[in-house]
Specification:
By secondary structure, this protein is of the alpha/beta class. It has helices at 8-16, 33-43, 88-96, 114-122, 133-140; strands at 20-24, 47-51, 59-60, 63-64, 76-81, 100-107, 126-128. The relative contact order is 0.22.
């Protein structure tokens, strides 16, 4: 049964089942947090697919950028959101239309949207809010 994950154990367990991450709000600017997180996740061995309509077709850290989640033809285990909270409901709508292997939505630090999270959970997708996967992995050691 899907839920909003808050315990470190549950979060790390969910993350351990992830191989491919779609990172919404990816940036090609090294000083942006999404760039640093993407670089770290790649370093941890994840397949990270950047999503940014403005940069679609370009490369970030050797990975092709897609305009939308729907444009990605690979199986996605986790969608990481680097957008403001107001953008989350529309992103969840798009996610609900995708076929995901492991169903996990991750909202970055300071991103919380309870209503969209509940819709995702009701559809069988686990949700993490207001956390950074890289920080969680680093704390785990």
């Amino acid at each position: 049964m899907a839920k909003i994950l808050t315990s470190r154990f549950d979060i790390l367990d969910a993350l351990s089942q992830v191989k491919t991450i779609a990172l919404i709000g990816a940036s090609n600017k090294p000083d942006r947090p999404s760039y640093g997180v993407m670089k770290s996740l790649l370093g941890y061995g994840f397949n990270v697919i950047p999503v940014n309509p403005i940069l679609a077709g370009k490369m970030i850290l050797g990975q092709t950028v897609y305009a939308t989640l729907s444009d990605i033809d690979a199986s996605i285990d986790m969608v990481e959101i680097f957008r403001n909270a107001e953008a989350v409901p529309a992103i969840v709508d798009e996610i609900l239309g995708l076929k995901m292997t492991h169903k996990l939505i991750w909202m970055q630090l300071n991103i919380i949207h309870e209503v969209a999270a509940k819709r995702a959970v009701d559809a069988g997708i686990d949700v993490v809010m207001d956390r950074c996967p890289v920080i969680e992995l680093e704390l785990h050691g």
